[in-house]
Amino acid sequence: AQSVSQHNHHVILSEAASLELGCNYSYGGTVNLFWYVQYPGQHLQLLLKYFSGDPLVKGIKGFEAEFIKSKFSFNLRKPSVQWSDTAEYFCAVKRFGNTPLVFGKGTRLSVIA
Amino acid sequence: NAGVTQTPKFQVLKTGQSMTLQCAQDMNHNSMYWYRQDPGMGLRLIYYSASEGTTDKGEVPNGYNVSRLNKREFSLRLESAAPSQTSVYFCSSSRRTEDYEQYFGPGTRLTVT
CB–CB of A9 and B41 under 8 A? Predict the structure, then answer.
């Protein structure tokens, strides 16, 4: 079965620290890859997505992610986090075709002053 | 353009009671989905509807039924609620199940006592 693994359950960073959240998936075929963010009390919003082309994709709010096909990974990065980045981050993978998204279990990011 | 709307926002049920969660989208999307979100479990797909007139089970369908009433609306029914169904329920939609990202509603927080 297709699965999505997020390595960190909870990450705590100081403001201005760099962020990298890991995401690996198990499916070997063509995939579309997404990172969603859920701010406290809000619904999920799309941060960025990869469908094809340049494996380094840039999203909103200074986030970027790199697709490494050989490692089945799609890690999320941000050079300098802000307090407002405190949220839960979900990696999601979609197999090409008539199949829905599969989400990872999420990583909670807490940014402290 | 309201996007994806869900009603109610909050609900408390007693064990054994039934209720229907409503979801509607105004983006002319073909595909709609119901997820539940539990701490440490991420989002798990309950049911989805790839297009009007079709529904399919997701990862955790037991205890739920769905109806794709028309292209806009996709409801989730709990026939006999159980405490294990205490969760936050999210509805989402996408243009098609192929390739496109999903847009999420604000969620329904359900407590079963």
Answer: no
CA distances from A24 to A33, A100, B11, B32, B67 (A): 10, 17, 35, 26, 34
Closest CA to A78 of A104, A109, A44, A40: A109
Backbone φ, ψ for residue B96 (5° rounding): -145, 165
How far apart CA B72 and CA B26 sit, in angstroms, is: 6
Residue A28 has pLDDT above 80, yes or no: no
| Cβ contact, residue pair A49, B101, below 8 Å | yes
Residue B110 near residue B86 (C-beta atoms within 8 A): yes
| Three-class SS state of A66 | strand
Q: Quote the CA–CA distance of B109 and B31 in Å, as a whole number.
A: 23
The beta-carbon neighbor of B105 closest among A43, A90, A99 is A43
The arithmetic mean of pLDDT across residues A62-70, rounded, is 95
pLDDT in tens, B22-68: 999 999 999 999 999 998 888 999 999 989 999 999 999 999 999 99
Q: Do B44 and A97 touch (CB under 8 A)?
A: no
Nearest to B99 among A32, A36, A45 (CB): A32
Average pLDDT in the B67-95 region?
Answer: 95
